[in-house]
Structures are given as C-alpha cells and as structure tokens.
Specification:
The structure holds 2 protein chains of 2 kinds. By secondary structure, chain A is an alpha/beta fold. Chain A contains 11 helices and 11 strands. Chain A has a 6-stranded mixed beta sheet, sandwiched between helices. A 3-stranded antiparallel beta sheet of chain A has the order 8-5-9, sandwiched between helices. In chain B, strands 1-2 form a two-stranded antiparallel ribbon. Chain B is mainly alpha-helical. Chain B has a domain of 324 residues. In chain B, helix 7 runs parallel beside helix 12 and helix 19 packs across helix 20. Classes of the chains: A alpha/beta, B mainly alpha. The interface between A and B is large, with 53 and 53 residues.
C-alpha cells in the first residue's frame, strides 16, 4: 500500500514536473506555406527571437498544400502538448464555408496573432484610371474589358472584390494566378490590368514606380502611401467591413496544458515586441497586432464573420456561414 | 572601380571565401541526394544565419545554390536517380556512360560543362540584366502556354524506339500532373476526397520512383552479372573534347539563361529543352542518344547551371524571383533588412556586383570540388549489387520523405517505381512521364489564362499570336518542330526540298 502511494506520489510529482518544465525539448513549428512566401518569411524572422525567449530550439518545417489545410490538419493530429505549433495565415478562417476542412482557428488556441496586412488595389502604369472612382467609371463604361488578377476562391482578391461588389456593380474578366508574386509579375508585363493585393507584397514595386495604387482598402490613409485616399472616401458603405486584412498567427491544438500555452504566449509576445521584428514588419506595410487570448479571439472571429458572409453574399461559398453558427458582422 | 571593389568583396575576405567554399561543398551533396532540394536547404539556412552579417549569410547560401544545381547530376550519372528534376536529362545519357565504365569521365565532363554554363549565366547577368528582365516579363500567358507545348514536343526526343509508346507515357504524365486542386478554381480533380491529394502528386516522388526504384528493380534481373569495372584513368576531359563541344555548350547555356530568367520556368525545363536541342542539332553522334552520347550529357548540364545566373536576373533587377530558390533569397534579403525589389539596386548598389562576384567564386569552387573525389564516387557503381540495390531503395525512401516530410510521398514513389519497372519491361520510356508531370500545370494554367483573357474567343487568341512578334516566333517554332517530325516531311518533302547534294 505504502509502495503504491509512494509510486503515485512520485508519478504525480514527475508529471507536474514535466508541465512545470515546459519546454523540455525542441518545439516544432509547422508553416502552412512554402519557402520564400510571406508567411514563411515572417515566421522565419520571428523564430530566433522566440528561441531566445523560450530557451529552446524552434524547428521550422514547411508543410504546404490544400491552401494550408494539410498543415492545419497535421498539427491537430499531433498531441496537444505544446510542442507542435501551427504557423499560418488567414486562410483557415474560410475553410468551413468553402468546405475545405471542418476545423478553423476557432477550434485551436491562439498563441499570438502577430500582424495584419492592408489590402490595396494596384494597376498597371498604362491603365487608363488612377483612383477608385475612375476605376469604377471605366469598368462600367467598358464592361468586360478590364483584366483583373485573382488568387482563387477565398483568397484576398476574392474577398476584396466581394466587398467592392457589395457597393457597386463591376464588370471585368477575372484571371486566376497561384499567388501574389506571379500575379504582380503578370501585372507588370501587361497580362492583367488590376490586382487586389496586400500592401506588403507590392510596396517595393510601388515605390519604384513600376505599378500604381488606385485604391487603399482601409478607413484611414496609410503612412507608406502619401496622397492615396482611403477607399471609404469613394465608397462610404465599405466602412462596416474595415479595417480588414490578411494576418499571420501562431496556434496550438485545443487541450494544450495551460502552462505551455502561457509560456508560448509570453515568448511570442516578447519576440513580436523586439525592435528588429517590428521595424521589419512596418517597413513592409504590416500593422503589428501582437495579441493573444481574448483579444486575439475577438480579432479572429471578426475576420471570420466579415469574410464568410461576404463570400456567402458573393455566391461562392459551399455552405452558409449560418451552418457553423458564424454570426453576421455588426 | 566601385563595381570591381564590390565584385571582389568575397574574394579577398578569408571568412567570406571560406563560407562560399563551405556552401558550395554542402550544396553539391544536398543537390546529389534526391528529394533534398536546394530550395529547402537555402530556407533552412535563413533561420540558421539569422544573426549573421548579411554578406556572410549570402555567401553561404549562394554557394549552396550553385553547388546544389550542379550536384543533381552526381546521382543521376551514378545511380540513375536524378538529384533534382533539372538532372533528369542528365540521367538519360549519363547513366549509360556509367554502365559502360565511364562514370569518371562522365562526371568530369559534366563538371566542366556545368561550370561553363554557370559562367555564361553569370556573364549575361552581369552585362544584360535589365534588358533580359524587361524581356522576360513581357511573356504573356499565351507565350508560356506555347513554351509548355514546345516542351511537350520533346517527347519525340525522349521516346527511344517507339514514338507511340513515348506519346502514351507523356500523356500519362500530363494526366498525373492534373491531380489535385485545380489551380484556377480550386475544384478538386482526381482527388477522390483525399486531402493529401489536394496538392497533387509530387513530381519529385514520381521521378525518384520511375528512375531510381524501377532501375533497382530492373537490376535484380542481372544479380549474377559481374559489375562493370570503372575506368578512372581520365577524369578531366581532353582539351580537344572541350573545344569540340564548346559550341553546343554555349548554345545550351543561352537556352538555360533565358528559360531560367522567365519567372514561370526554371532549370528543369531549360535542361530538357537543351537536351532536345542537342539531339536535334547533332548530326552524327558517335554514340546514339540514350546510350551514352556525350552531347546528351553536355547540353542539360550547361543549361541548368546557366539557369542559376538567369534566375538572378529578374530577382536582382525587379525583385521577381526567377525560380523557387531565388524566391527564398528574396525572403532572406527581407529578413536581413534589405528591401528586395526594383529599388534594391538603387538603395544597395553594392548588392549586384557582390552577388555577381560571389556567384563567380562559387562556380570556381564547383569546378574544384566537382573534380575531386570522383575516383571515390565512381567506386559506388562498382559496389556489389547486393549492397547497391538496397542502398538505392534506402536513398529513394529517405529522399521521397524529405520532399515535404510526408509519408504519402514514399508510397507514391514506391508505386511509381513498381509501375516504372513494368513500363521498362514492355519498352515504354519513363522520361516522357516526368516531362508530362512537370509541364502539365504550366500548359494547363496558361492556356486557360490566355483564353480567359480573350473572353473565350479562339479567333482573338490567334489574332493576338500573330500581332505579337514573340508569340509568332514561338508559334512558328512549334509548327516547324511538329512538321519536321512527321513522316510526310521526313520521307517526301525533305529529300525534295533539300536536294542540294
């Protein structure tokens, strides 16, 4: 009897010790997108700071495929012990309505939502319009003439367009590309005229005068884009969706011990606060959020309802957001 | 003078010199292991070199890139497993050479030709980068589509004895390439609801299976056959040989630079196109292609290393990656606080010549490391089959897993290995299958973009082809190559029209 008690005591001691000591081994970071992409770049630039704060190695692996669903499912198939992190972008928030997966970030624990991007509309320098109003006028005067790049259903471009279409009717040809990079290359070569894209992906080309900004999809003007007025000036109705933008975040499986979650949250908070990282993100036009817990959940839910309902109204959702209890945006 | 100063930065600093050498050495081995890609190696180095000075980090990564592209030829020649898709064409004639006991000579020749190709790429980068990159971005979707079609026509060169069987294999490859989420509409194609199939079947897994595993299975037929003794008397190719093949190497290199500089295509397509070019232009090869023709080794090796310089062209001038590896380089520059983009050369003028100098240095190290240790490597082929065959299997499995750290790729690799074995048994060439997988999405996506641009009108599509000089040239090439392969031309028209003699 005594032996059993001693054994139990030892066991409980050792198990609490395991939790108290988190992390006792290397932490694996699973990146949803491929090497060289913006998610990859952001995660690889914050990782060394996290390693310092956490006191362990953070080993990054790219697991691409299925607009990030393969990485998301992979992390959720692992043990909920805080040793496997999902490092991703905004895409999972659309999985349910697009029928891509049964899980999204609301089924996971947010360690940190690092930063948010601002969408802009960029155009080929030779395009016969220079701002939002001219763009709208031109498309309505020349239906089916403007070639617009997109990045597939549920991508940033499709949601920005759904926003615009909720305000005005637009008639254009949509030409899909496999990402911002190839689309912006095509824009410079004249294969497409307009592309909705995150500011960070286009800022260098804008500064160099290789393409022009015709719309800033935000409520306020942006320090990096002097002289560009926010889209709400032309379309005040957009205000109810904004600010909206793609984001980068780090997540763990539900059921991860609280101690591990807290330590990870603290480490990522410190890391995202480091001057190196913030300077890097600002220069690329990203807004630092560095939020976790309730604030992060609020942000994630608001992103999900805005985007899901927009996509649903635009008619390309597979399931209604209602099915998953996603509330309409206020 | 400034340019020279920046060019020499990595030559005069022992630290940078050492890092470039180390990178090149590592790159050769990473490149040689199938499945371990240069892209992956360079992106791991990003985290590893995070706290380093940017120049040190770049030296190491440039070395890995240059070495890695070259390294793919090693296993292609020795074991018939291309280290990367850009070495597929190398295996076609490199492996037969090794089977004849000429592995040392083949590696030596491929090294020298890779280095020549590398230099051509660097020279074009140094002298004509802005012009080439402006040209590269004018490629419209229809032009990419036609490049894809041109590529598909290489089936003729890769088929061996029966064109019909080659076409069958190529079509199968195209079909395999369509598996996954449709890149345009995200509709599932041939996925049967399996999420692991969304991203399609990895071409590298198909490649490792079809080349490596099927070859290993095939070898089991000849277990009792004595292994071929390797002649290692000559490793560095004869000067007269280099002179003789130099024109072909230069032509292939130019194909490599241009195809490499195009943002939508890379070294794999460049190498295959160069192989095709070699086969088409070589009048009387000493040894037929596919059985160990040196021309078939020289062309792809020159082209894929020339594509490195090519890929840097749009990256340094416009911030547009020329291939997957330069995309990672852009990320690295970003992390180190530089702004990769069209303004890079204005804000950081030293970057351009530093990179050119560094690439040149790495290319010299490829020559040095490439030509040493060949004797040892040739011995691999002399290994008893009982050791070699399990080794090939092991390498194939590790390689397939390494592609994306996914077990499913191992299953695909093994399945295609078994399938490839039967294809060989019945005389079907495996090369066209890989060709099809690689070109499938390029052709598919760009055809659809092109026709969407014309709102579905074929008339407008052809009208635009003939109003653009570039499109017209590509279209003419397709027609010419097609006609020249038909029996009508070969048997009736050619003798009549070219009756000069």
């Amino acid at each position: 009897m005594k032996k059993t008690i001693a054994l139990l005591a030892a066991l409980s001691l050792s198990s609490t010790a395991v939790f108290a000591d988190y992390p006792t081994k290397d932490v694996q970071g699973i990146i949803q997108w491929g090497a060289g992409g913006s998610t990859d770049t952001v995660m690889r630039s914050i990782a060394p700071h996290v390693e310092d704060a956490l006191g362990t190695d953070l080993i990054l692996t790219n697991r691409t495929g299925g607009v990030g669903a393969i990485a998301t499912k992979y992390v959720n198939a692992k043990k909920a012990d805080g040793y496997t992190l999902l490092m991703g972008a905004e895409n999972p928030q659309m999985y349910k309505v697009l029928g891509l997966a049964k899980i999204d970030y609301s089924d996971m624990i947010a360690i940190n939502v690092l930063a948010r991007g601002t969408p802009v509309l960029v155009a080929n320098n030779d395009a016969p319009f220079n701002n939002m109003q001219e763009f709208i006028d031109y498309t309505s005067a020349n239906p089916g003439k403007v070639k617009l790049g997109s990045t597939g259903k549920g991508g940033l471009a499709s949601i920005v367009l759904a926003m615009l279409k909720s305000q005005v009717s637009l008639n254009y040809i949509s030409i899909p590309y496999n990402g911002d990079g190839p689309a912006l290359t095509a824009l410079q070569g004249g294969a497409i005229d307009v592309m909705p894209v995150v500011l960070g992906a286009s800022i260098e080309s804008i500064k160099a005068g290789r393409m022009k900004v015709i719309g800033l999809i935000d409520k306020e003007s942006n320090a990096l884009l002097p002289g560009v007025s926010p889209a709400t000036d032309t379309l005040p109705g957009l205000a109810r969706y904004l600010p909206w933008g793609p984001f980068f975040g780090v997540f763990v499986k539900k059921g991860t011990p609280e101690d591990a979650v807290e330590k990870l949250q603290a480490a990522f908070h410190t890391a995202a606060d480091s001057p190196d990282f913030t300077a890097l993100m600002k220069k690329r036009g990203f807004t630092i959020l560095n939020i976790s817990g309730e604030k992060a959940d609020q942000f994630l839910n608001s992103y999900r309802s805005t985007s899901s309902w927009l996509v649903d109204e635009a008619g390309f959702s597979k399931y209604s957001p209602e099915k998953f209890g996603i509330p309409k945006p206020q | 003078m400034d340019a020279f100063h920046f060019f020499a930065t990595s030559w005069v600093s022992p630290e940078l010199l050492g890092l470039t050498a180390l990178g090149t050495f590592l790159g050769i081995y990473v490149g040689a292991i199938p499945g371990l890609s240069v892209t992956m190696a360079v992106s791991i180095l990003i985290s590893f070199t995070f706290s380093w000075d940017v120049n040190n980090a770049l030296c190491l990564m440039v070395g890995v890139y240059m070495g890695g592209v070259y390294g793919g030829s090693r296993t292609a020649i020795l074991l018939n497993i291309p280290g990367a898709p850009s070495a597929i064409a190398t295996a076609m004639d490199g492996y037969p050479l090794a089977k004849k006991g000429l592995a040392g000579e083949a590696i030596g020749l491929s090294t020298v030709m890779s280095v020549i190709g590398g230099f051509v790429g660097i020279i074009v980068l140094a002298l004509a980068a802005p012009t080439v990159s402006e040209f590269a971005i004018t490629f419209q979707p229809r032009d990419y589509m036609m490049l894809g079609v041109l590529g598909i026509m290489l089936v003729g060169s890769l088929s061996g004895n029966s064109l019909a069987k080659g076409i069958f294999a190529g079509a199968l490859g195209l079909l395999i390439g369509t598996v996954g989420l449709d890149p345009m509409s995200a509709e599932e194609r041939f996925t049967f609801g399996v999420v692991d199939l969304w991203d399609g079947i990895n071409p590298v897994a198909v490649m490792i299976g079809m080349f490596g595993v099927s070859e290993a299975l095939h070898q089991l037929h000849h277990m009792d056959k004595a292994v071929v003794k390797q002649k290692i008397s000559r490793i560095i190719p004869k000067l007269s040989d280099i002179k003789k093949y130099l024109p072909l190497s230069l032509q292939s290199s130019f194909i490599g630079v241009i195809v490499g500089a195009l943002p939508g295509t890379g070294g794999d397509i460049a190498a295959l196109m160069a192989y095709d070019h070699a086969k088409r232009t070589t009048k009387d090869p000493k040894v037929p292609f596919g059985e160990g023709a040196k021309e078939g080794l020289i062309a792809p090796e020159s082209a894929n290393n020339a594509a490195v310089g090519g890929a840097y062209i749009p990256m340094l001038t416009l911030g547009i990656p020329g291939d997957a590896v330069t995309a990672v380089f852009i990320g690295a520059l970003f992390i180190h606080g530089l702004n990769p983009g069209p303004l890079l050369l204005v804000e950081q003028p030293q970057m351009f010549w530093f990179t050119v100098g560094n690439l040149t240095l790495a290319n010299i190290f490829v020559l040095i490391f490439g030509l040493t240790g060949i004797r040892l490597f040739s011995k691999i082929v002399e290994c008893p089959k009982g050791i070699l065959i399990p080794l090939i299997f092991l390498l194939s499995i590790v390689g397939a897993y390494a592609i994306n750290n996914a077990v499913i790729d191992i299953w695909w690799m093994l399945a295609f290995g078994a399938f490839g074995y039967f294809m060989r048994l019945y005389g079907f060439p495996v090369g066209p299958v890989i060709l099809g997988v690689i070109l499938s999405s390029l052709t598919d996506e760009n055809w659809r973009r092109a026709i969407l641009t014309e709102s579905g009108s074929l008339g407008n599509f052809f009208a635009h082809i003939f109003t653009s000089p570039l499109s017209s040239i590509l279209f003419m090439s397709i027609v010419l190559i097609f006609v020249s392969q038909t029996s009508l031309w070969k048997k009736h028209l050619k003798p009549r029209l070219l009756r000069s003699k």
